[in-house]
Amino acid sequence: MSKAASTAAHADDNESDVEETAQERVIAEEYKIWKKNTPFLYDLVMTHALDWPALTVQWLPNVHTHSGNDYSSHKLLLGTHTDNESQNYLMVAEVRLPLEDTEIDARNYDDDSSELGGFGGASGKVEVQIKINHAGEVNRARYMPQNDLIVATKTVSSDVYIFDISKHPSTPAEGSGCNPDFRCIGHTKEGYGLCWDPHQTHHLISGSDDGIVCEWDLANAGKQVHPLNKYTGHTDVIGDVAWHMHHQKLFGSVGDDKKLLIWDMRLKSFDKPLTSVNAHDAPVNSLSFSPFSEYLLATGSSDKVGIAIVVRVP
């Protein structure tokens, strides 16, 4: 590289660093303004600093109330994204939320706990209770609808891990490794798309950066699970996958090719979807079917546009 080219490249790097620093300052200032105005916006705000960033979070369905307490206990499913030297974990945290009839003082802000709207005398309202060793960061974690103790994770490798939380200690033993109950193979790259079948137990789909949707059935499977089918309609990274909430044999996938694909498993057509829609002008990152209407779904994209789409079901 010539001296002039090297100087130009160095200047570009410096300009990029300046822009990134300026953006971070804007974000910090916006957060400060939001935090200052939380008493006017919400009845209750709870914040909890995790040890590491988390790429995934999901509420677990079970809620517990205790006689004499003014709160109910909820559970969160989380995963860590550490540096390359620290252990990653699949985690379950307890979150204490006030009951509907609990008095909340929106003017009460606790600087130590970063909580707005005090209730009762409970302390430590967010607490990690279960940590399970995970190989690499957890890109996404989702519980099985029929049994919330069964959890699938998308990994930085091409595999999808399945954990039965009831079979793992709440804190891993010193020096123990990652030991999922099942390893679902079939992908060649990591990804983020992951969805359990709401209609059939132990049945799930996954979409990855290899542009493939894999389908697995864990019923009567060994520790290593091969895909039942692979769907290859996308030409780029798959951002998300989702089952239709009303039709057992339909699911959708979206990706960086800007497309929404609807698949009908009854057709046994693994490279040609039932429907293909040019949904956005940029990569499509998320997909969700309406639980209330069989004809509606929503997509989210890097073009900053959310779209509700009417689906014609055969």
UniProtKB/TrEMBL annotation:
Q: A GO term (biological process) for this protein?
A: chromatin organization
The UniProt entry, under SUPFAM superfamilies, shows: WD40 repeat-like
Which parts of the sequence belong to the Histone-binding protein RBBP4-like N-terminal domain? 29-98
The yes or no answer to whether the keyword Transcription is present is no
Gene3D superfamilies given in the database record = YVTN repeat-like/Quinoprotein amine dehydrogenase (2.130.10.10)
Q: Where are the WD repeats?
A: 231-266
- Protein name, as recorded: Histone-binding protein RBBP4-like N-terminal domain-containing protein
Instruction: Give the taxonomic lineage as stored in the record.
Output: Eukaryota, Sar, Stramenopiles, Oomycota, Saprolegniomycetes
